[in-house]
Specification:
With 652 residues, the protein is an all-alpha fold. It folds into 3 domains: 448 residues, Sodium/glucose cotransporter; 91 residues, Arc Repressor Mutant, subunit A; 83 residues, Winged helix-like DNA-binding domain superfamily/Winged helix DNA-binding domain (Arc Repressor Mutant, subunit A, Orthogonal Bundle). The chain is 70% helix and 2% strand. The protein has 28 helices and 4 strands. A two-stranded antiparallel sheet has the order 1-2. It has a two-stranded antiparallel sheet with strand order 3-4. Strand 3 and strand 4 form a beta hairpin. Helix 1 crosses helix 8 and helix 7 packs antiparallel against helix 16. It is globular. 52% of the residues are buried.
Amino acid sequence: MDSENLFIILGLAFFALLVYIGFLTRRWIHDASDFILAGREVSAGLNIFGIAAIGFAGSSITLIPGFAVLYGFWPTFFNQFIFIVGGLVFYGLFFTPYIRRCGAQTLPEWLEMRFNSNVRLIVTIGTIVGLTGIMANNIVSIGIVISGFIDLPLNVTISVMFFVFLLFSYTGGLWAVTFTDFVQLLLGLIVIPLVLLTLFSSFGDFSWVTSRQPEAWFSGSAGTLPIISLRYPSVLTSLILFASFLVWGNNYYWLRCASCRSEKAARDSYIWAGIILALFIYAPLALIGTYSRALFPELLDTAGFVEATTAYGLFLREVPLFLTSILLLVPLAAGISTATTAHMGATSVAVRDIYQRRIKPGSDQKQLLLPSKIILLILGLLVWLLCFYPGGPITLFAFANAWLGPPAILILLGILWRRFTPAAAFWSSAVSITIMVVLTFADLTGLFSIDQYMHLGVAGFGSGLVTAVFLTFLTKPHYYGEENWERVPAPGNRKVITLNEEDSKALKLIIHGYSNMSELTDLLGKDAADLSSIIEKLDRGGFIERQALTGAGFYTFRACKQEAADLPKMSSREKALAADRLTEESLGVLSAIENDFSGLNSLVEKGNLTSLQLSAILAGLIREGYLAEKGFWKRNIKLTPAGKIKLSKHTP
C-alpha cells in the first residue's frame, strides 16, 4: 500500500472518530451552557490537552521548523518560550483567577461589566472577525497540504473538513471540541517525539548536526534573531503578537478558562499546557528544522521565509512511508482542532453578546440551545464561503491581529488600574483597530508598508496603549476608580440605598456563602453585566465588602452587618442554613449525592437546576469542605465527613 492510500484510510478513520465523539458527548448537552461552556465542568487534566492543542496549531507544523532554519534551534525555542511564559503561564497565574471569579462567559461580556455596552459591542464584532480569520487560515493551510499530497481538488478537501468539524461541533458543542483536542494532542505527543527517534536512528545525534552545520544551533539563513526590534521577527514583537494579542485578547482562551470546574483547575491547566508544549511539541519541531537544514544545505542555507517553511515537507521525504502518512495526519488533526476551538469562541460571542444580549434578551439556557447550534452552523458556512474567495482567508488572517489586539490592552489595564475609564477603553479600541485596518489595506494595495519601520501589531498596540492612558486622565472613571473611594464600608462613606427584589436575591446568596461573582451569575442565570450593576449597588450601599479593588479580589465579596430592617427577610431555618453556608438547594444536592451520585444528573435533566446552577452549588460545597471531587472526564463527587454532619444536622 502506498503512502497516499494509507493516509486516506487513516484520515477517514480519524474523521469517523471525531463524528463518534460528537454523538457520544451529545448526551451531556442539556442547555446552551453545556453546549458553549461544557457546564463549567472541564477538569484540569482535560483542559491541559485543550490549551496545549490550541498552541499546537496546524500552522506551527510549518512555522516552527521554518523559524529554526531562519534563526537556529535555540533562538527558535526561546521565541516559543516567550509565547509559553508571556502567554500561557502568565495567563494561568494572572488572568485565570480573575476570569474564573468574574462570571463572564465571554471576554466581551466582561468588557461591559468593567466598562460599558459600547466597548462590549465593538470588541464583539472584532472578536468574531478575528476568530473567523484564524479559523479560515487553519482550514485552508491544511487543505493545501492535504490536497497536494493525495491529489484531490482543494475545494473538495476543504468541504470534507468543514462537514466533519461542523457535524461533531453541532452535536457535542464544547464537550466534543474538548475531546477532539484531547485526541489531537495525544496523537501529537505520540508522533512528534517519535520524530526524534527517526532523526537519531537515520542520521545521528546532535553531534551529527554540529559536524555539518555548527552554526545551526544559534543562527540560521537569516542570521541571528533580534531582541529589541519593532520589526518582526524579534523577541519584543513575539511578546506583543503571540503572548499579548493571540492569548490575552483571545476569546477562546477566555472560554477555556471559564469552562473549568475550579479556579485551581484553570490555573494549573495553563501552566502545565505550556510545559508540555515546550518540551514535547515545540522542541521536536524546532529540531526538525535544524536537522532539515543540515540535510539540505543546498536548499536551506540561503532560504528566505517561504523556502524555510518547506522544511517539514523536505523532512517527510526522508522518513519511511508509514511515518509520512502519520506525520501528515498530525497537522490535519492540529488544524481541525484549532479551527473548531476558534469556531466555538466565535459562536459563544455571537450567542452571548449579540443574540442573547440584543436580539432575545431574557432567554434562558434551554431556550438558547437551538439558536446556539444554528449560529454555529451559520458561522461555519460563512467561513467555508470565505475560504474560496481569492485572498479572503489571507486578508482575514491579516485582520485577525488588528481585531484581537485591542482587547489585550483593555483586559490588562482593566484588571490592574481601577481608574481606567469606559471612554478611554472605547477610544483605545477604536483608534487601535482603525490604525491597523488602514495600515493593512495600505500594505495589501501597495500604497504604503509599515513593515519597513515596525510590525503592524506594534503600531496598533502602541497607539491603543497611549490613547488608553492619555484619555483615562481626562475622563470620569466608575465610582470605585475615584481617589476618595474606600473599599471597606464605614459610617459616612456609603449611600442610603433601598434594595429591590433582585438586589435582595443576590445579597441573600452572599449571606449564604456564595462569595464570588461567578457563582452568583450562574445561580441567578443573569448576564454578568446585569448582575454587576446589582453588585455595584450593594457595594455603594455598604451591604457587601469587596476583597480588593483590583485583581481577582474585586469579584470576591462578603456580606457586611446592617440593621435588620435593611437586610432581606429570612426565616429561622434560612438563618440556620446560612450559618453553615448552605441553602435548601445545596442541601438537596448533598442529599442527592448521599443517596446516589447519579441523582445529580436527574436534578438537571428534570429541570430542577441548570448545569451552571449545579456547578456553582458544587463549587460552594467543595470550598466549604462538604464535598470532595475528582474525575478526568466528568465530575466524580463524594460526601466528606463534614458534609455528612451538616446534612444530618439540617435534614428534617
